[in-house]
Design a protein that fits this description.
Helices cover 33% and strands 32% of the residues. With 237 residues, it is an alpha/beta fold. The protein has a five-stranded mixed beta sheet, sandwiched between helices. The protein has a four-stranded mixed beta sheet with strand order 6-5-4-8. The protein has a three-stranded antiparallel beta sheet with strand order 10-11-12, with no helix packed on it. It binds zinc ion.
């Protein structure tokens, strides 16, 4: 695979940009242990399936929800924008604003713990070499080595003792932590992908059950859903 398609793959994969999980965990261990509780690789079950969150820190200032992104080069973005831009090797790429994805995590956590969203802080973590040109008010984008500094310096609403206790209780009891459960989670994802493929092979839209139609687009032929534009499922040939 050449570099360009590798980068494109990474961008579209987005979610799975795991930059040295260990480097982030090591950085988080610099936080005062008596005040901050760290949860790495948290998986929570919700009605919509399970949600995976890279790192969570329950600190006196708030609950920090960390999403790691392995994007290099220069990143431009703002809190409200739908898409962000990456400049790398003289080329421009765009990807979905990762703060939106992380906001989804915060909504799930806020619901599960039962404390307001304003007590959560969204933090995107990039490799240290990445140049970040990001405008945010209620969120942060930092390099790995800047995480603990950011959290220590954060002046937020602050959690009450009972809110912090509640957060810790939910995160330690509802995290799908056992090996078996994680394996089952991975298995379920694989099965869903398989089911989707089978469905496409039978000419049925895996998203809505509509009929798949062969269409021609700017970039070649593809299968599109007969329920377009209500359903935007597409599969390249
Ligand atoms: Zn469909």
């Amino acid at each position: 695979m050449n570099k360009l398609s590798q980068i494109k793959k990474e961008i579209s994969a987005g979610i799975k940009g795991s930059i040295g999980e260990h480097a982030v965990s090591a950085e988080l261990r610099k936080l005062p242990r008596d005040l901050c509780y760290i949860y790495n690789n948290v998986m929570l079950e919700t009605e919509k399936g399970s949600t995976q969150i890279d790192h969570i820190v329950v600190a006196p200032q708030g609950v920090f929800v960390l999403e790691t992104k392995n994007y290099q080069g220069t990143i431009y973005g703002s809190e409200k924008a739908q898409k962000w831009k990456q400049y790398l090797g003289g080329k421009e790429y765009s990807f979905y604003n990762p703060l939106r994805q992380n906001y989804g995590h915060i909504k799930v956590l806020s619901n599960a713990i039962g404390i307001p969203e304003k007590l959560f802080v969204s933090v995107l973590v990039f490799p240290d070499e990445t140049k970040l040109m990001i405008e945010t008010n209620n969120a942060a984008a930092v390099g790995i080595s800047g995480i603990s500094h950011y959290i220590k310096g954060y002046l937020g609403y602050g959690l009450t003792r009972s809110q912090a206790d509640k957060a810790r209780e939910v995160l330690s009891t509802q995290n799908i932590i056992s090996f078996v459960e994680r394996r089952e989670h991975v298995q379920r994802i694989k099965e869903n992908i398989q089911k989707a493929e089978e469905s496409v092979n039978q000419g049925i839209c895996p998203q809505c059950g509509g009929k798949l139609l062969l269409r021609k687009g700017e970039y070649g032929a593809f299968y599109g859903c007969s329920n377009y534009p209500k359903c935007r499922f597409k599969k390249k040939l």
